Structure formats: C-alpha cells, structure tokens
C-alpha cells in the first residue's frame, strides 16, 4: 500500500469566477507543470473550457466529476492509482459543501494550497442569497481573489463578508491583467485589550490565542476572562495546571490544543478535562513546561461551567 504524501491544490469559488482560467494558466507554466503526473479533477464546467494542448506538459490526466457522491475515499485512491498521479489539482463545484471533499480525502492527501475566486461585481448578492455556501468556501481558504474589480469600487462590503468567516486569509482585488491590490484594511480585535478585564467570548478564543502568541508583551500585566478546559498532571507542580481549548486553523487534521500554564492554590478542586470560566492575571515568568519565560495565568477566580456550544475553537 502506497502511503506517499499526495499534494492537493484546491481551487474553490462559484461558476464563472475565474477558477478555470487560473488553473489553465497554472498548468501552462512549466515551473509548476514540470512533468510530474498530475490528476486534474474538474467538478464544475462553465463557459471556459480547458485547453490541454497548451499545458506545459502532457502529464496531466483530466477527470470530470458530475456527482458529489462520487467522492469517496476509495474512488479518490483508485483514480490516483490508475493514472499514477503524484499530485492532485481540484476545481471544486461552488454548489457543493467542502466537508464532502475533506471528509473523504485519503489520509495521505495533504492540501498544500486552498484558493478561492469570486466575481467582485456580484459577491455581495451571492452572500445574501447563499450565505451558507459562501461561508463554506471562505472559512478555510488561504487566499481569495476578487475578479472584475474597479479601483474606485467600495471594498469594505467584500472585506467584511470575508472577515466574518476567515480573519487570516489574504484578500486580493484584481483590476486587470497584472494589476492587483492586496487588501490592507485593518481589522480591530473583537475584544478590548485595554479593559480592566479583557473578556474573551467563546467564538473569539482562537483569535485571542493567536494574538497572544504573536503579541505576547501586550498582554503582560493584563487580566483576562474566558471559558477553557483544564488539564492536570503531566509533570506540573501541585499548584499548576494547563487551561485552553482545541483550535482548528484550517481543517480537522490540524486541530491542536492551544493552552497555557495557570497557577492556582486549589488545583485539586479542578477536574482533568473539565470546563471552567477563569479570570486571571497574565504574568511573565519562567515555567518548566515552557523551559523559558512565558505567560502564566495567576488565577483570581475560577468557576466550573458547561462546555461552549462549539467545543473546538475556530477563526470564524
């Protein structure tokens, strides 16, 4: 059984958003299409058709997928095996939910890039009429490209829609060939870092944890309050525990526990894996778990509670 890693390049968006043209140009580029056997899965056919004769290499096998139920793990494995592909390029159907792809993707398939395309002229209307499908294509993408833009267009409505679903992806506005602009609108944090107590809502935990790691000095001396899970033991001292939540950055495969050390005189009253709402001051000090100085929660109050509605935190 071959478990060699298969890179996947996933391109999403709605009909006539520019996916086919981008993939065509990519496969015409000899730097990308350098002779490696490639499986091109075409799950949506619009007005623009592929021109394989213009591909930089003839090593591309195109397979059309008309029915989402075709996408089973066994089918993916068999299709790759039959054509001997070492990587996969996917033009995904905008009307299909992405979970159907991710949940059936073989374990050795790894998404190297997920990119979304949208027509800037009708994207707001798409969002109004098909919010669930739009959110589905935004939540895990690394980059979204808005096509058919004019420099005088108001970009804020597009920016807000994207950031409600995904605060980490790049946003690109395309005005014409070789004329693009990278979104530079600053997003305020959804919590007040200067408040006497920084209240972190359940939905904002992943964003707060990321900002804490990237801008650690900004939080020293501050008091925070959030809901988290307590972990005990593991070589910690008697007055120490770990508190945090599982965080999903992109997909199920990358879920990791994002937590930090806390100090509490009554650790024995806590449950391993239990949920609490904690209020604590963040202090910079050496801790053996970090093997260096780092943020440690000095508990002011801790109360047992029910789990949040979504136990795994996400970046919206």
Unreliable runs, pLDDT <50, ≥5 residues?
none
Major sheet characteristics = 8 strands, mixed
CATH architecture of the largest domain: 3-Layer(aba) Sandwich
Count the domains. Answer: 2
Strand order of the main beta sheet, please?
A: 3-2-4-1-5-6-7-8
Helix content: 10-25%
Rough outline: globular
Specify the number of helices.
7
CATH class of the largest domain: Alpha Beta
Task: Tell me the fraction of residues in β-strands, as a range.
Answer: 25-35%
User: What integer value in Å does the Rg equal?
Assistant: 23 Å
- How many strands in all? 15
List the helices and strands and how they pair.
Blueprint: E1 6-13, H1 19-28, E2 38-42, E3 60-64, H2 73-83, E4 87-91, H3 99-104, E5 109-119, H4 123-129, H5 131-138, E6 143-147, H6 156-165, E7 170-176, E8 179-182, E9 198-199, H7 205-214, E10 223-231, E11 240-248, E12 256-263, E13 275-287, E14 292-304, E15 313-314
Parallel strand pairs: 1-4, 1-5, 2-3, 2-4, 5-6, 6-7, 9-10, 11-15, 12-14
Antiparallel strand pairs: 7-8, 10-11, 10-13, 11-12, 13-14
């Amino acid at each position: 059984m071959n478990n060699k890693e298969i890179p996947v390049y996933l391109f999403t968006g709605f009909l006539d958003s520019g996916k086919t043209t981008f993939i065509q140009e990519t496969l015409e580029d000899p730097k990308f299409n350098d002779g490696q056997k490639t499986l091109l899965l075409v799950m949506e056919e619009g007005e623009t058709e592929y021109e394989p004769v213009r591909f930089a290499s003839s090593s591309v096998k195109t397979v059309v997928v008309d029915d989402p139920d075709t996408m089973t793990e066994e089918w993916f494995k068999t299709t790759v095996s039959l054509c001997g592909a070492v990587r996969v390029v996917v033009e995904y159907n905008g009307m299909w939910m992405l979970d159907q792809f991710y949940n059936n993707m073989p374990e050795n398939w790894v998404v190297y890039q997920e990119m979304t395309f949208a027509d800037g002229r009708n994207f707001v209307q798409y969002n109004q009429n098909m919010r669930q499908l739009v959110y589905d294509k935004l939540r895990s993408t690394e980059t979204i490209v808005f096509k058919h833009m004019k420099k005088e267009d108001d970009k804020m409505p597009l920016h807000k829609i994207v950031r409600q679903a995904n605060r980490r992806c790049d946003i690109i506005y395309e005005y014409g060939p070789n004329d693009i602009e990278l979104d530079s609108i600053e997003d305020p944090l959804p919590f007040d870092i200067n408040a006497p107590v920084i209240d972190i809502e359940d939905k904002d935990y992943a964003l707060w944890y990321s900002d804490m790691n990237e801008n650690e000095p900004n939080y020293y001396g501050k008091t925070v309050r959030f809901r988290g899970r307590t972990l005990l033991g593991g070589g910690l001292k008697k007055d120490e525990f770990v508190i945090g939540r599982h965080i999903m950055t992109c997909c199920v495969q990358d879920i990791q526990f994002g937590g930090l050390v806390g100090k509490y005189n009554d650790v024995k009253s806590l449950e391993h894996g239990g949920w609490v709402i904690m209020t604590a001051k963040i202090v910079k000090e050496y801790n053996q778990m970090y093997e260096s100085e780092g943020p440690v929660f000095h508990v002011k109050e801790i109360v047992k509670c029910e789990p949040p509605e979504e136990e795994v935190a996400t970046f919206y």
